[in-house]
Structure formats: structure tokens, C-alpha cells
Known about the structure:
The protein has one domain (3-152): Yope Regulator, Chain: A, CATH 3.30.1460. The protein contains 3 helices and 7 strands, in the order αβββββαββα. The protein has helices at 3-15, 83-95, 123-152; strands spanning 20-21, 29-33, 36-47, 55-61, 69-78, 99-102, 114-120.
Amino acid sequence: MSDQEDLKTFVKTDIIKSSKKVKGKHSPISEVVDDVLRVLKVQAIYDLNQNHKNFYLFNLKNYFKKPKIIYFLSVMLANNSSDLLVQLAGEYLVKHELKIIQYSIFPETLRVPLLLLKEIKIIDDYTHSIKALNKIRNKFRNKILRLKNLVENE
């Protein structure tokens, strides 16, 4: 079995069975690759709150032929996104090969949360990414608290 087939089996048997699918239509995610805008269609989003608070699994249809589906593990950094929060989170992106998006998981709500995404390519990426994203989320939260304290003490 290839890594991609192993990952697909792992996602279906271990992750999806213990999570809840987010219902409704989801808007696609766009990214710029080699100066060309590419659109990744969201096939499904799974809420992993039962095992990992504020985590979601995105199943995206790849614009390339292989692999057909891309899996992204995401953590919610903030319930309401802003340009300031995006700037604060920016330092973690390059170092950990992460993507940051402002994406409404629940379209019926008016809030647009800030999500940090990590692509899962092999099974080992999943557990490593959970730990790494949790660590980054905690650092980000501490940074926001320090900023809040600075503003309050002025």
C-alpha cells in the first residue's frame, strides 16, 4: 500500500468515525501557486472536538491529479479574525509549513474565525501536527494576552 492509500484508510477508520461531520455547503479555499490562483473544493469538514478541542479536518479536492484528495488538519486560533491577528500569527507559518485562512466553518454564523492549517501527507503527520498546532495555538494565545496587557497598562 502507498502512503496515500494508508492515509486515506487511517482517516476513514480512525479519524472520521470518532468525529462529527459539519453539515452544509462549504465555500472553496483559494491559494496562489506559481502566480496562478488555484481553487481547492471542500468536500467535507469534520469537527474533531470530541478528541481535540478546536480542531477540524478538511477534505479538499486537489486541483492536480495526484493525490485526488488532500487532508488538512486545522486549529481555530481565534473566533473572530482580524488583520492584526493574521499579522501576529504570521511568524509561525513559514517555520512550520502552515497556512492561515479566514474561513467560516459554519456559514450560517456571521463570525469568520482564523484557522491555522497543516497538510497531512502521511499517518505520522497527524499526531505530530496535533501537538505542533496545539503548541502554536497556546503561544499565539499568550502573545494576544501580552498584547492585551500592554494596551491596558498604557
